[in-house]
Specification:
10 helices, mainly alpha, 223 residues, Vanadium-containing Chloroperoxidase, domain 1
Amino acid sequence: MEVGALKQGLDGAQIDGGWYVAVTKFAEQTGWMHGIVLAYTDVLGLGLFALLLLACWWTARSASTRTMTAALWAPVAIVLAYLVNDVIKIIVAEPRPCQQIPHVVTLITCEAPGDYSFPSNHAAISGALAVAVLLVHRRLGVVAVVAALAMGASRIYVGSHYPHDVVAGLLIGGLVAALTGSLAIRMLSGVVDTLRTSRMQPVLTAGHRREHTASDQDRADSQ
């Protein structure tokens, strides 16, 4: 398909519009979930993402330089994933499902024309977060994966995206984080290692790890 055709707008309803309608109807029937899902998709989810990034930095302070590099790169990977995803969104120009499917009831106000749907920015950020955290800490990564999937599901539940928007966003975000994270670890670990012995040491290295390193050096000097 040529770019010119894509700019006319991808017809997402032909891909999985039926699934979207099924989810929004389910949302109509589960009013008890509305408050928590709306809070998660708008504020709580992003807050949890921030806490996960903070936890990555904290745990990386007592880990290897490679791990700390991955932790420091994680927010950058998320920003890059958002930018890449937004460029694709503009090129594909898929209208929001609430603009294409008549009489659908959504939990949030339908976005204005020009605020395109594919791929989901929320999902791209979530996918990048999940992979970035996995590069730092496996257990935190599992929590991040669950949080990312929940964010993606919430975007369909509130009526903002088709399922394929969310799947594509998760994949794009995860791929950007994986590729740039691996590159950053290879190229920036030396810089981070130097910073860990500079005035930045208290921020990048845990106190007990510094003490352990010093005692190791004392034993080496005594031999």
